[in-house]
Amino acid sequence: MVKYPSGSTAAFRKPVKRPKVRRSFSHRKGVSFSDRGMTLEQQINESNKYYLDEGIAVVHKKPTPIQIVKVDYPQRSKAVIREAYFRQASTTDYNGVYQGYYLDFEAKETHNKTNFPLKNFHEHQIFHLNACLKQQGICFTIIGFSSLGRYFVTPASFVIAAWQDKNKSSMKLEELEENSIEISSGFRPTLPYIDAVDQLIKGRK
Amino acid sequence: MVKYPSGSTAAFRKPVKRPKVRRSFSHRKGVSFSDRGMTLEQQINESNKYYLDEGIAVVHKKPTPIQIVKVDYPQRSKAVIREAYFRQASTTDYNGVYQGYYLDFEAKETHNKTNFPLKNFHEHQIFHLNACLKQQGICFTIIGFSSLGRYFVTPASFVIAAWQDKNKSSMKLEELEENSIEISSGFRPTLPYIDAVDQLIKGRK
After folding, report:
1. Which of A180, A184, B53, B77 is the most buried (most CB within 10 A)?
2. Which tens digits make up the pLDDT trace of B158-189?
3. Given CB atoms, is A164 within the 8 Å cutoff of chain B?
4. Helices (H), chain A
5. Nearest CA in chain A to B58
């Protein structure tokens, strides 16, 4: 067993591959490039790494659930999965802990410029957010309008109500502006969503 | 999009396959059978389902992280993963929320009857528990002595200290008895670890 000198966490860290930065932005004229061409998921993962390294919060993306059917064990090399299937997740993609608070959120990106279609949220995600809310978690969504370079942290209660409304198929941009905390893509962290979490916590008190 | 009547959660629930109950216990003489021959993981998963259904807590096992290399999309049937590899997890297996508290734990089973070898904990698990502790999470391990039918909920602080002790290769059963909350395998839930969490929370206040 490898032991590490107490107090040092450096030995724990695996080298993390930085997401590739797109070099060509020519097809996205007139858009803020502070997100450096990363997907929303890449931005959040990079932010989570920053928050972890700085001791600010511990948030991880959950792996995609896979049903493994067949595994090969070739000699002198590692196990290879030869048959497996994607399974339906039963939770949101992200959760973690921040100053004693349980955080739980789903992140979604749209190319749409005027509204966010509610069908992008799945039943199990809405159910999970609702269950976590009842346990007093800090639950929200991060919605990215990639064509606009705008990002909204929206309390889960608002999203759940919109999703449950049978007459509603999307959340309009104006509705999100009114009911969210808008955050801007930056450098360190790439997407400072914990700033919005601070406001959600303050609002709850 | 399927919408559900507000207030009802039944539509959310997927049918959950019950773990198979072993019918023959003849090889395990003199042992309590209240765990019905389930592995520790099965017991915890079943308990988590009970806690979720009853609105007591929301805790899920994280999926195993997989690096997917090749996926086939056969016509008229779902995607098949044809080449993938197991990746190292960067967290513990379980986390969730209970009455506003962030819960994080790792569960391990041993056939050993007198001690629990510390090499069963991996560096990334210890690091993760430590990081979550600093964020005021309720962090612990569930150690099952399967030969004895005994289960211990041990605060992460004790496990981390033992793991970091270069002169220590295992935690003795007596040490665990002294520094843990022992729980008994039962019926509903199969493994009532939230009872121990209540004590951990009380102890922290």
Report:
1. A180
2. 999 999 999 999 999 999 999 999 999 988 99
3. yes
4. 40-53, 123-134, 156-164, 173-179, 193-204
5. A132
Which pLDDT tens digit goes with each residue over B129-153?
A: 999 999 999 999 999 999 999 999 9
Give domain A33-204's CATH number out of 3.40.50.11810, 3.30.70.270, 3.40.1350.10, 2.60.120.10.
Answer: 3.40.1350.10
A135, B57: Cβ pair inside 8 Å? yes
The structure tokens listed for A61 are 């993306």
Phi-psi region of A99 (alpha: psi -120 to 50; beta: other; left: phi over 0): left
Residues A153-182: what's their mean pLDDT? 97
Task: Tell me which chain A residues have a C-beta less than 8 angstroms from the C-beta of B101.
Answer: 100, 102
- So what's the pLDDT on residue B176? 98
Multiple choice CATH, B32-63+90-204, 3.40.50.450, 3.40.1350.10, 3.40.50.460, 1.10.3810.10: 3.40.1350.10
CB–CB of B12 and A123 under 8 A?
yes
Least confident of A19-28, A32-41, B107-116, B134-143: A19-28
Write out residues 16-75 of A within 8 Å (CB-CB) of B: 52, 55, 57-58, 60, 62-66
Nearest CB among A4, A60, A132 relative to B58 is that of A132
> Which one, of A94, A71, A9, lies nearest residue B60 by Cα?
A94
Kindly state whether B150 is in contact with chain A, defined as any CB-CB distance less than 8 angstroms: no
Give the tens place of pLDDT for each residue, B110-120.
Answer: 999 999 999 99
Q: Kindly report the pTM of this predicted structure.
A: 0.83
